[in-house]
Design brief:
Largest sheet: 6 strands, mixed
Shape: globular
Number of helices: 10
Distance between the termini: 50 Å
Helix content: 25-40%
Order of helices and strands: HHHEHEHEHEHEHEHEHEE
């Protein structure tokens, strides 16, 4: 058999099947249980969460939320993002060819008082970034867009839609990546920073941040170092996790400004 439906589901790797065998057979305890089998399952899930957090550069393992399916994850993300940001607006932009879980979540949000605009696509199922921009308004808090459509295989221009400018240089240091990203964003930037910095590298950012940045949101171990190096020229707010940092940065961002995630090398336009 030649299987061509990998966008819907993919056969698990042999390594995955082998790793799961103990938990599907003898070690089948519920992780909420207090007996030996349950505690072993809980420890295994915690270990997996930590590995995944490192893989995606999450600040804390607690930021990783496991779900039972893509449908559950989509409901969590779309409804959660909209409800959490309702104080900023109640308008959502999406397309008519999104996953049913996206369109269903948006429809439910509409029943709760939100509004939405569905943007059309071309003959290849590709959305025009400018059409997304025209659909947005002062009340827009969320744009839902499939990166790769599971039916058509069309890869959407997500970076263009979001206004994301990636700094992708494997040889770049944290400071070099942050510098190039900030320089590409213009003024009124709120910068989220974490990571490790050598010597006086951070201090070299001070003139640029003084002229371009409204604030710096510092994460984790780097908080004290960032405040020491940049606190004299720009407002520095310390947070413990990436999730907290994003929420704080969103609140600090000026209308029309940019929230910049560095040195994760991505400039994230928050549309506010």
């Amino acid at each position: 058999m030649i299987y061509l439906d990998h966008l819907t589901t993919t056969p698990p790797l042999t390594e995955v099947v082998d790793a799961m065998q103990p938990w599907l057979r003898g070690q089948f305890g519920a992780p909420a249980s207090l007996h030996k089998l349950g505690l072993e399952a809980r420890d295994a899930i915690d270990a997996a969460r930590e590995r995944l957090a490192k893989l995606v550069n999450a600040a804390e393992p607690e930021e990783i939320i496991f779900t039972s399916s893509g449908t559950e994850a989509i409901n969590h993300a779309v409804k959660g993002a909209a409800l959490a940001n309702r104080r900023f607006g109640s308008h959502i932009v999406t397309t008519g060819i999104e996953h049913p879980a996206v369109l269903g979540s948006v429809a439910w949000l509409e029943s709760q008082g939100f509004s939405s605009t569905r943007v059309g696509v071309d003959g290849h199922g590709r959305v025009d970034p400018d059409a997304i921009g025209r659909a947005m308004n002062d009340e827009t808090i969320l744009v839902c867009l499939h990166h790769a459509n599971l039916d058509l295989g069309t890869v959407q221009p997500v970076a263009e839609v979001a206004g994301v400018r990636f700094v992708n240089d494997s040889k770049a240091t944290n400071v070099e990546a942050a510098r190039r990203a900030v320089e590409s964003c213009g003024d009124h930037v709120v910068v989220i920073m974490g990571g490790r910095f050598k010597g006086g590298a951070l201090e070299t950012l001070a003139p640029l941040f003084a002229s371009r940045a409204d604030a710096v949101v510092a994460i984790g171990e780097a908080r004290g170092r960032i405040r020491e190096a940049l606190g004299a020229v720009v407002r520095v707010v310390e947070t413990g996790s990436l999730g907290d940092a994003v929420r704080v940065a969103y609140g600090l961002a000026s209308p029309g400004g940019t929230v910049l995630l560095a040195p994760a090398c991505a400039s994230l336009d928050m549309f506010r």
